[in-house]
Amino acid sequence: MLAATALALTSCSSGDSGVASAREPADTAPASSVAAAAPTPTTTTVPEPVCTVTAEPGDSLTAIAERNGLTLEQLKAENLLDPTDVFHPGQEFDVCLGDRFDPADATFTEPISAMVIRQQNELNELLSTTSMIPLDVDGDSGRLTRQAACAARMGLGLPVHNRHLVPGSEEEATIFAATELSIPEGAPTDADRWILIDQTCQVIFIGEGNDRVVDVFPTSTGSEGHETFTVRARAFRFDPAVDNEGWHDSASYPVEVDNPLNGNMYRPIYFNDGQAIHGAEFVPPYPRSKGCARTFPKHQDMIIEWLGLQDLTEATWSISEIDVTVVVQGRYTDLEPLPDDDTA
Q: Which pathway features in its UniProt record (predicted)?
């Protein structure tokens, strides 16, 4: 068990606010929308701290470096500049060493709408046998589209990140050519049954040994200050909460591993003290929980049925009965500030 001070930070909250697109998906896939006019590509930058500066008329690389407390070599290395590169007024440069923004990295640039529409169609086809929510084919390379692309990278052995899918890239060609997903890196394939929670992509893979991926689900992990801990652990408790239609309320029914801040959690499966995989009505494609990993209730039911726990009427603390190994990996970063509702 973790110390009591750590446990106090381990709390989950279902919440009921947020955008409609992150709510319980309908049983039918949404109809594709008509392609909109292609907007001019825009570059997304990190708002704070100010890590990008714009070259002005008459600027030199040396002047840009000195204004921002860097050496010329540091500026060149951070922006992957070649001695033969020519730069122009208006060009952006990254002046924060070692950060995640790089103007030379095309994954930070939103593709034009027509390209995204094709990507969305291909991602929907690739993920059609999983429980990932079908994308609206709207040409918007937003969080849901990037979440789907990130899940595809995981299942195809590509470098994992949650930025844009670059049109015409080898990565895009690999995704377009794929017909199924493989077991992702990090999955505990030495276990008979496993659950892999990836915080970079905000997805959950479940599988069986080294044999197969059973399914993939969207998730929402712990928000800043309430992070879901990186861990490998055996799930040790499951609460069907049948007396409350599956909704375990730790504020009203606390036990040793609960925290009153947990609130309502649908049929939680605990794996690390008070941290659990549980159903919730609001599962956005970014961290929103208070330490747990959320799924939609229908997806939680699917996980429980896969584990053979659907007929239990009382909570079990039997590790052998639950019989699943859980791994939490990755770290979430975003191309844009999180919505205000993330603070609730």
A: Cell wall biogenesis; peptidoglycan biosynthesis
